[in-house]
Specification:
By secondary structure, this protein is α+β, with helices and mostly antiparallel strands. It has one domain. Helices cover about 30% and strands about 35% of the residues. It is globular and about 35 Å long. About 30% of the residues are buried.
Length: about 110
């Protein structure tokens, strides 16, 4: 699972918002225990989920209409990308369509 720093999570959030991903939901927040939260963004059927649980951040992606989530780092590895920054790794989300996501489901272990 791709763990992010607080700064990385902020950079990913900023990239999503500046690249036409629409914020569609938030669960939890600062008032929750440990500040646990989960935010989801969507663009053209691609979903990106940014999660904070007990002070640890990570992100994964999915497609509309499915309950499966894939770790961003695992998707990058399966597609042969070797980006280093979290923002570079999430950029692949914009290129994942339904057909590619279906193929990735057979190659990558889903996130919880």
């Amino acid at each position: 699972m791709a763990e992010l720093t607080e700064q990385d999570a902020g950079a990913v959030r900023q990239w999503l918002e500046s690249n036409q991903f629409q914020h569609v939901s938030t669960v939890g927040g600062d008032s929750e225990g440990f500040g646990d939260r989960q935010d989801v963004w969507e663009r053209d059927g691609t979903l990106v989920r940014l999660t904070r649980d007990r002070g640890q951040w990570w992100y994964d992606l999915s497609r509309s209409g499915t309950n499966n989530w894939l770790d961003v780092d695992s998707v990058n590895a399966a597609l042969g990308y070797k980006q280093t920054s979290p923002v570079e790794r999430v950029q692949v989300a914009g290129a994942v369509d339904d057909r590619m996501f279906s193929a990735l489901l057979t190659a990558v272990r889903p996130s919880p």
